Amino acid sequence: MIQGERNLYSARDGPSSSALETAAHCPDCHLRGAEFCEAICGEGASGAFPPPVRQYRKGRLILERGAPVGFLGVIRRGYACCAKMRVDGKRVLFGLAVPGDIVGGFPDQRSACDVEALTDLEFCIYEAPLLRRQLAGNARFRKMLLREIQSQHDRVLGGIWRYGTLSSRERIIVFLVMATEFLPTEPQPDGSLDLTMKIERRDWADLTNTALETISRTLRYLEEKALVTSLAQYRFRIHDLDRLALLAGVEPPRREVFAAERSESPCPPAGAKNSGWR
C-alpha cells in the first residue's frame, strides 16, 4: 500500500540515471513506448541507447509536486499515478500510467503533481540534454510525444467524466472493466477471464474516489450476480465482461491488445546488470 504523504520519500532520494542499462534496442518490446523510443534511436542521436532504466519500489515518490522534472521516461513494467491531497486531507489519485505510457516532462518543466509508484516500477529514461536535441531536430519525436501526451490527457478527462456522472458502484465496476485492457489477464475455457490486479484496495478506492467499504460491498454484489468471483487478494475471475460493462453503462473494452502488454514483465532488459531496487 502506498504510504501516507508524510512518509513518502523525497524525490531527491530517487536513483541516478546510471542505475541500470539495457543491452540493445529492446527489439522484443511490444509496448506502445517501443515506437516512441525508436523515434529517438532512428535519428542516430549519440547517447540515445542504451537508455538507463530506473526502478522504484511500490510506494516510492517518483516526482514531487513543483519540483523540476528533468527527464522523460517510458514505463516498461508496473504502474504509476498522479496524486494530490485535498484540503480535508483526503488523497486523490488520477492519471493512471501503465506500461508504454510516458512519465516526466519537458526540460525545465515543473511537475504539476506528485507522481507515485503504485507497484514496483521500471522505466527507460531520457535525460534533459537528449530531450532538448530531439525536440529541436527530430520532427517524428515531436509528433509522437504530442500524440502520447494527448492520449494520456484524454484518459484523465475520461476519469473526470466518470467522477462526475457515475455512482461509486459504477466507478468501481468501470475500473474492473478497464483494467482488462492493461493488467495481466488469462482467458478461461468457459469464456471467463482471470484478471490479476496487484493494485492495493486503498489505491483502487482513491483512483475511483470511493471508500474501501464500498469496494468490498460492490465485489460482494458482483459475486451475488455471478459476474465476478474473488479468487485471491489480487486475482478476480470476470465471468461475463460484456455484461459487466453494460452494468456500468460503458462500452466493452478493446480486446486487440498485445499479450505482452498484459504480462507481469512485458519487457525485461536483455542482459542488463541489475543494481537493485530503490
TrEMBL record:
Swiss-Prot/TrEMBL GO biological process terms: regulation of DNA-templated transcription
InterPro entries: cNMP-bd_dom, cNMP-bd_dom_sf, HTH_CRP, RmlC-like_jellyroll, WH-like_DNA-bd_sf, WH_DNA-bd_sf
UniProt-annotated stretches for the region Disordered: 258-278
Domain HTH crp-type: 166-242
Pfam families cross-referenced by the UniProt entry: cNMP_binding, HTH_Crp_2
Organism in which the protein naturally occurs: Jannaschia seohaensis
One term of GO molecular function: DNA binding
Protein name: CRP-like cAMP-binding protein
Entry keyword set: DNA-binding, Transcription, Transcription regulation
